[in-house]
Amino acid sequence: MKIKRAALTALAAVLTVSSPWAWTSLSARDHVYAESDAPTADVAIVLGTEVVGGEPSPRLAGRLETAARLVAAGRARVVLVSGDGASGEPPTMAAYLIELGVDAARIVQDPYGLDTYDTCIRARDVYGVRRALLVTQSYHVDRAVTLCRHLDLDADGVAAPCHCSWTLHASKWFRDYLASGKAAWDVVRARPPEVTSAPDPAVTNALAEPTTPR
After folding, report:
1. Is residue 178 part of a domain?
2. H helix intervals, the chain
3. What's the total number of domains in the chain?
4. Has residue 90 been placed in a domain?
5. Per the domain annotation, does 82 fall within a domain?
6. Do β-strands 78-82 and 55-56 pair in parallel, antiparallel, or remain unpaired?
7. Tens digits of per-residue pLDDT, 35-85?
8. What is the DSSP code (8-state) at residue 212?
9. Whole domain around residue 201: which residue ranges?
10. CA atoms within a 13 Å half-sphere pointing along the CA-CB vector of 142
11. pTM value > 0.85
């Protein structure tokens, strides 16, 4: 009986921990695409991650390279790079996109996208984005899409290459598995972003820029 009780307790714990992850996975179903199958949107949002020595980490480079190809293919017109300005993420991301051939006038920086939830809510409330492609790795994309969609931002995810070892990919997947609990709690309590800002017309202005011949 003790063994059975312990097994049931362990099962209940696993189900409790896994339910937020299941929520993100199911909510993102039919809204995540490979780059080659990506739909179109005026705005592609690149979620920030580590910058090393003033350069994008391999994972961040994979996201930016994917976004640049989406723009080149006409699947997005403007790129919103969202990350921690104190860590230098947005300017580093913008500079890398320009190196990849993206018109600087088509890039908007949000220095207060301090986490995935903040990126989504600020894209909606500060930059007026209502429809977007979210560019990030496969281990993160379900949570990003789910958060944005539950914040009334019509989002589809585009999985970017990781450029990393399978062990790092697995560790990031496990981290995101755990982070899904915080994501669910943020949505339930309607958490405001860490930094609130006045509406910024930067995305609207960038969309109004004339197309530069390539």
Report:
1. yes
2. 2-28, 58-72, 89-99, 116-125, 138-150, 166-188, 202-208
3. 1
4. yes
5. yes
6. unpaired
7. 999 999 999 999 999 999 999 999 999 999 999 999 999 999 999 999 999
8. P
9. 28-208
10. 19
11. yes
Tokens standing for residue 74:
């006409």
- Per residue in 160-194, is it b (16+ CB within 10 Å) or e — as a string? bebbbeeeebeebeeebbebbbebbebbeeeeebe
Q: Half-sphere exposure of residue 99, counting CA atoms within 13 Å on the CB side?
A: 11
Task: Quickly tell me which residue has 């930094």 as its tokens.
Answer: 195
Find the CATH number of the domain harbouring 194: 3.40.50.620
pLDDT digits 0-9 by tens, 76-106: 999 999 999 999 999 999 999 999 999 999 9
For tokens 């109004």, what's the residue?
208
Tell me which residue has tokens 């960038």. Answer: 206
- Could you tell me if residue 135 is inside a domain? yes
Find where tokens 């312990």 sit.
6
Nearest partner of 90 among 111, 119, 106, 71, judged by Cα: 111
Task: State the residue for tokens 């915080």.
Answer: 182
